[in-house]
Specification:
The protein contains two helices and five strands. By secondary structure, it is α+β, with helices and mostly antiparallel strands.
């Protein structure tokens, strides 16, 4: 009888936790974000950009510059980020996920 109670408790905990995990994963998705560039640089073999969402909905986050289009494209994206950083311009970026260190696959300078 005691082992049945333990099994029931484990099942109830699993039923409570699994939906919460699924909802949390569903909230993370690809998105276009209008933001300010805070920092950019290279670490190891990767290039990174730290941005702040202008709406304040997302926290200030680091993203990895995607190399899916090759090294030249990632260098161009980092150059765009540097231009925004120096000029104070906003950028619009496309990220594969809104979680930290997700891939950024596009970046465009915006008129302020």
């Amino acid at each position: 009888m005691k082992s049945l109670k333990i099994v029931m408790v484990v099942v109830l905990i699993a039923v409570a936790i699994v939906p919460a995990l699924v909802v949390q994963q569903a909230q993370a998705a690809s998105a276009w974000i209008t933001c300010w560039v805070n920092q950019t640089g290279q670490g190891g073999n990767a290039k990174y950009i730290k941005v702040t969402d202008v709406t304040g909905v997302l926290p200030t986050t680091w993203f990895t510059i995607s190399t899916v289009n090759g090294a030249t494209a990632s260098s161009t994206m980092q150059t765009t980020a540097l231009t925004a950083l120096v000029s104070g311009m906003k950028v619009q970026v496309y990220v594969t996920d809104t979680l930290p260190y997700s891939d950024m696959t596009a970046i465009y300078l915006m008129d302020n």
